[in-house]
Amino acid sequence: MSPECSGVKVRARNREPVAGGIAELWKGLEDKDRFSHLLRYVLVDEVFANGQLVAKGYVDASSFGPERRFQQVFTELEQCSRLKSRGLWEACE
């Protein structure tokens, strides 16, 4: 995904699933990425926020380090969001 298709838009979208809800954070095998961002799986009001962001086309199905727990799910969600031109896939492909 090109830089103009992520960045500010993605940061804004990352906040949507957790706004007003109670978040449960799950730590994977890696604590932080190469930019020192915390890497967490996020469940908000019983909704898997990470998967929701991929399904809506707001982020791609990236994995960092050895963590691959949900990679197949994320890849399938990304393929679906690309096919349906959702979110950033509509604007960037």
Question: Any chance you could write out the topology, listing elements then pairs?
Answer:
Blueprint: H1 8-15, E1 23-32, E2 38-44, E3 47-48, H2 49-55, H3 71-83, H4 88-92
Antiparallel strand pairs: 1-2, 2-3
Helix pairs in contact: 2-3
Short description:
This protein has 93 residues and is an alpha+beta fold. The chain has helices spanning 8-15, 49-55, 71-83, 88-92, and strands at residues 23-32, 38-44, 47-48.
Kindly report the spatial arrangement of strands forming the biggest sheet: 1-2-3
Morphology call: globular
Low-confidence stretches: none
Number of helices: 4
In whole angstroms, how far apart are the ends?
9 Å
Order of helices and strands: HEEEHHH
- The CATH class assignment is Mainly Beta
Q: What gyration radius follows from the Cα positions, in whole Å?
A: 13 Å
Average pLDDT confidence is 81
Number of strands: 3
By CATH, the topology is OB fold (Dihydrolipoamide Acetyltransferase, E2P)
Number of domains: 1
Helix content bin:
25-40%
Protein structure class: alpha+beta
Query: How much of the polypeptide forms β-strand, as a percent range?
Result: 15-25%
Outline the biggest β-sheet.
Answer: 3 strands, antiparallel
Per CATH, the architecture is Beta Barrel
